[in-house]
Specification:
The chain is α/β, with parallel strands linked by helices. The chain has 20 helices and 20 strands. It has a domain of 253 residues: Rossmann fold, CATH 3.40.50. The protein has a six-stranded mixed β-sheet, with helices on both faces. A six-stranded mixed β-sheet has the order 16-17-18-13-19-20, with helices on both faces. Strands 2-1-4-5 form a four-stranded antiparallel β-sheet, with helices on one face. α4 packs across α5 and α16 runs parallel beside α17. The mean pLDDT is 88.
Length: 539
């Protein structure tokens, strides 16, 4: 075996005084070999991202710092070398792909200028050579029209294209080590598959060692050579991908793998004949640019929903699946009247909600409620949880005492302590905030619950808890649910029927098991083929 590219020994990363634990990373040992992909797996707070930042020298010092241990790269210890030397290594020998490229890329510099900056800092090359090399890199990462992409600003690219541009920057100087920190978490399944394939191609082409940070075991099954599992800052299990995925030894690893949703759809439930909600020929168009208030330029028209027709039966969960930009969230927001559709019908029972004015709509809002993707952004940070939840019934005319009593009861239903009533949203974890969002939606006793990507930002075990909670509540309250997701594993375990959307249109509908077994539309087949770890069965 060749010598390791990276050797981490007894690494301790200290947290500020008063933190819930003294070390974010404690006594961690790991090696990374050339042409190897080592996946570091764990939930939020496990220390995996801070370990990768310690390697790059990007810890938020002095509050968070390496207190003990070594990170050896060749003959040098990255913990003790001068900052000037670390800056030379960073980018040229060790590069990093960040989780969210929009925040990692400079918004006021073109993609070409940002790649050019890497070459200017590390290499002696002419302007023409730098440009040719940059265009070649963008071509390598399969960006369409590399010359045009060079002139584009980050906001002018899609999420997948921004991530490709960041990979191009990270690989600009042929680094020996590539650190990828959750590089596909925010991406659609097909884009994620392309990015994973690209990273593997680049790794094999340049003989690079890849340290891949993730909480997605499907991704691990697709690309990992070896796996290390972290919990509470400690490495609790390590081994080859086959060993860890198929025969996990540590109880924490076993729990994580058990929480991965299966791709085998659950048995369908008996369906009611009468729909509780019908959407007929729904149309929504967005326009931007053009004219004086559009700041000039050619007008851009996006048909977010084109003649969408759906029905939700009493007691069923209808999944709407598709990639970003497919129109699924727009349809959800039109249904609950957060945005206005131009045409079509939204029939809740016998009432068409679409033409109703604000006053006429108010009595019906209690019947259809929404759980949002980002619970922190949808909860007022200056209002206590009890007031957030009870506000809806009070506005609807329910006496304050009755609304507050119902709120306390629902906090127990969603698995929160009664003390949560007098606390603020920032005092809760992401999973707990999502429970608060669910309680707020349920307090009005709705007939229909619209859940827009309610678990996409959560760790796999917390995701499993929220999905179980939604299932229990749906059974207890005989709710009908529209469930928006791009995760087909989640859809398989939650949804009775599916509607597949692409470019604003519903391209396929049917029972979940039937669509998974025999997808009719080529787009549905592409989505199913791109699911990470589709050939690996958890457990």
């Amino acid at each position: 075996m060749s010598a390791p590219l990276l050797e981490i020994r007894d690494l301790h990363v200290a947290l500020p005084a008063g933190s819930e634990r003294p070390y974010a990373v404690e006594a961690v040992n790991a090696d990374l070999a050339p042409n190897e992909i080592l996946c570091i797996v764990g939930e939020s707070g496990s220390g995996k991202s801070l370990m990768s930042r310690a390697v790059m020298g990007l810890l938020p010092k002095p509050h968070v710092h390496v207190a003990k241990g070594s990170i050896r790269f060749g003959e040098e210890d990255l913990v003790t070398i001068p900052d000037a030397r670390l800056r030379q290594i960073r980018g040229s020998d060790i590069s990093m792909i960040f989780q969210e490229p929009m925040t990692a890329l400079n918004p006021v510099m073109t993609i070409g200028d940002q790649i050019d900056e890497v070459f200017r800092f590390h290499e002696k090359m002419s302007r023409r050579e730098r440009r040719e090399r940059a265009i070649g890199l963008l071509d390598d990462v399969h960006l369409p029209d590399p010359a045009a992409s060079m002139r584009a600003y980050p906001h002018e690219l899609s999420g997948g294209q921004r991530q490709r541009a960041m990979i191009a920057m990270a690989l600009a100087l042929d680094p020996k080590i590539l650190i990828a920190d959750e590089p596909t978490t925010a991406l659609d399944v097909t884009t994620q598959a392309q990015i994973l394939k690209l990273i593997k191609e680049m790794q094999e082409k340049h003989d690079t060692g890849v340290l891949f940070i993730t909480h997605d075991f499907g991704v691990v099954a697709d690309i990992a050579d070896r796996v290390a599992v972290m919990q509470g800052g400690q490495m609790v299990e390590a081994g080859t991908a086959a060993e860890v995925l198929n025969n996990p030894q540590h109880p924490y690893t076993q729990r994580l793998i058990e929480a991965v949703p299966s791709l085998t759809p659950r048995p369908p439930r008996v369906q009611a004949a009468k729909p509780v909600l019908e959407v007929k020929n729904l149309t929504k168009t967005f326009r931007s640019g053009g004219g004086f208030l559009g700041f000039g330029g050619e007008e851009r028209i996006v048909h977010a929903a084109k003649d969408v027709t759906l029905e939700l039966r009493h007691g069923e969960t209808l999944g709407i699946v598709g990639e970003s930009g497919s129109g699924k969230s727009t349809v959800a927001r039109c249904i609950v009247r957060l945005i206005e559709a131009e045409e079509g019908k939204i029939l809740l029972g016998d009432t068409d909600l679409r033409p109703l004015g604000r006053a006429a709509m108010r009595p019906h809002r209690a019947r259809i409620q929404m759980v949002f993707q980002d619970p922190f952004a949808s909860l007022n940070p200056r209002t206590k949880v009890g007031a957030i939840i009870s506000q809806g019934p009070i506005i609807q005319g329910v006496p304050r005492e009755e609304a507050e009593a119902k709120t306390r009861e629902l906090l127990k239903v969603v698995g929160l302590d009664e003390r949560a009533y007098d606390r603020y949203p920032h005092e809760f974890s992401g999973g707990q905030r999502q429970r608060i969002g669910i309680a707020r939606a349920l307090v009005l006793g709705p007939d229909v619950l619209v859940a827009d990507e309610p678990v996409s930002a959560l760790d796999v075990s917390i995701q499993a808890q929220i999905l179980r909670l939604l299932d229990e509540i749906r059974e207890r309250m005989t709710l009908s649910m529209i469930f928006i997701t791009h995760d087909l594993r989640v859809a398989a375990q939650v949804c009775d029927r599916l509607a597949v959307m692409r470019y604003g249109e519903v391209v396929e509908t049917g029972p979940t098991a039937e669509i998974f077994r025999d997808p009719r539309h080529e787009y549905t087949r592409a989505l199913l083929a791109a699911v990470p770890g589709k050939d690996w069965r958890a457990g």
